[in-house]
Known about the structure:
- About 40% of the residues lie in helices and about 15% in strands.
- The chain contains eight helices and eight strands.
- Helix 2 (about 20-30) packs parallel to helix 3, helix 5 runs parallel beside helix 6 (about 140-155) and helix 6 runs parallel beside helix 8.
- About 40% of the residues are buried.
Amino acid sequence: AQKIGQVIMPRIDFNDPESIPRAKRLVQECEVGGFIVFNAKRGLLKETTSQLQSLSTIPLLFGCDAERGVGQIVSDMTLFPFTMSLGAADDVDLVYNQAYFIAKEMKECGLNLLFAPIADINSNPDNPIINMRSYGDDPDLVSRLCAAFIQGAQDNGILACAKHFPGHGRTGVDSHVDLPVLDTSLEALQNSDLIPFQSSIEAGVASIMTAHIAFQEIGDGNAVTISNC
């Protein structure tokens, strides 16, 4: 039961008054591995993460989608421009410093897992979910900037997460609302989409997030999130 709990990461939404009491029960009764945070308030978030850590016998992960800064999910904190603007600047030091600063603000709030960088290559300009969140359409550029972001975050004690493996940049459907199905070959992925993930692994990234997309020509045809391949 404990092992099952450790692979579950429920949502804490600070707009939901039941969310924090529910989180406390999940820690005590199910020994969950951590939480993903949404719509947080700066002071209350630190108080909440500290309380939940004190209740847990195993250190908790507190993750957030802060690719543009903690201001994405916490009020009164820093929000940076879209990732594509950093790709246009093509400055690894700038990306490193951005990630280092994001990590600093996360630690202030008790957060420790950053769901970034975006390692997707923006190969489909009509992509409704990646687009400006990507560094660009050049695998080498995306690889270099992803590595810089990972190092910046992890040098300041925050776990990074490259997403969305094996690449969400070709899709024309938002995978939050439907399952994108692509006919991309394995060779095409190896020559493009997979390159930034390889670079992220070489940079020592702590984790990788899978994409909820399916490939007709690869594996068992299931979404990557549940595929046996």
